[in-house]
Amino acid sequence: MDDLNELKTRILAEIAAARDEAALEALRVAAVGKKGEVSLKMRELGKMSPEERKTAGPALNALKDEINAALAARKTALADAALEARLATEWLDVTLPGRPRRDGSVHPVSQVMEEVISIFADMGFAVAEGPQIESDWYNFDALNIPPEHPARQEHDTFFMNRAEGDARPPHVLRTHTSPVQIRHMQAHGAPCRVIAPGRVYRMDMDQTHTPMFHQVEGLAIGEDISMANLKWVLEEFCRAFFEVDEVELRFRASHFPFTEPSAEVDLRCSWEGGQLRVGEGDDWMEILGSGMVHPRVLEAGGIDPEKWQGFAFGLGIDRLAMLKYGIPDLRAFFDSDLRWLRHYGFASLEVPTVHAGLSR
Ligand code: PHE
């Protein structure tokens, strides 16, 4: 019996010390396998006297059970520990911010759109939208451009086909974002303060023109809104957009059918050494068209021109992007060349805001 106790102490100690399932299995075979130590002892039972067998039999069986139980317990403990270890190494902090990969980037046009939107949002302008396929009424008539007006030709309009026999005037791809003025006035009335960024289309293609490009329309209507307000808003915009302390704008008398008076706006700049510097130098760069909304346009929008007045402007996003980020050829904007996009693109998780910096 003594050597049974010894055997038991040793085997249980070995089981308790086993480091993995393979070691455990080896111990099982060595102890209670067919030729294991305990099994061999059981075989000896046959040679014993009935008296001896009476005590040795149950003792061996008890030992075998105890070893099997210890093996099972150790196995569970090892599996638990392995799971714990795995959980400890495989944990994932789902609250970490995403890691930007260099294979996706924000197109300069989208970047500039976001910048422009955030600057005007800071000045209390909401964003309005309209369709890119427009009726000719919204694109022209409502903006005081009657059918025979020369401005219709100047716009190099893309016309949509009507079904054969349909005599109504064709829809157009909007040639500017100004029709959104009308839609917004009709839907929301006065007073209002909105910008309308979006795509516009004209049949034109060279280094600085593409058949599709982007504009931002601005519209502010109130009871006493004047050109002075327009000037301040545009100066604030240019200061913020070009990220300089001082800018100088020049209002040049111009003509648009939908504004009266109308002004084209130039920005003082220098091109010394091929590098654009805003707010200094002797050059002027035209950046947008603007004016006081024509009374007929207010009427078309359902607003009483006796009571309300306001300003409107339209600026080209793509041109702003070329200027600010030194991009020479507009056509490359829409070639979808990955090398170009990687070079001129912006990190996709940086959202431009006026307070955090627009173009970090
Ligand atoms: N719609 C004009 C254009 O595309 C720009 C403009 C908008 C001018 C609003 C004046 C007022 O050229």
Short characterization:
41% of the residues lie in helices and 20% in strands.
Task: Describe it.
The protein has 360 residues and is α+β, with helices and mostly antiparallel strands. It folds into two domains: 2-89; 105-347, BirA Bifunctional Protein, domain 2 (2-Layer Sandwich), CATH 3.30.930.10. The protein is built from twelve helices and twelve strands. The strands form three sheets. Strands 2, 5, 6, 7, 8, 9, 10 and 11 form an eight-stranded mixed β-sheet that branches. Strands 1-12 form a two-stranded antiparallel ribbon. Strand 7 and strand 8 form a beta hairpin. Helix 1 (2-17) packs parallel to helix 4 (50-90), helix 2 (21-32) runs antiparallel to helix 4 and helix 5 crosses helix 11 (317-325). The longest helix has 41 residues, at 50-90. The protein is rod-shaped. The mean pLDDT is 91. Bound molecules: phenylalanine (PHE). Phenylalanine is lined by residues 176, 178, 217, 256, 259, 289-291, 312-314.
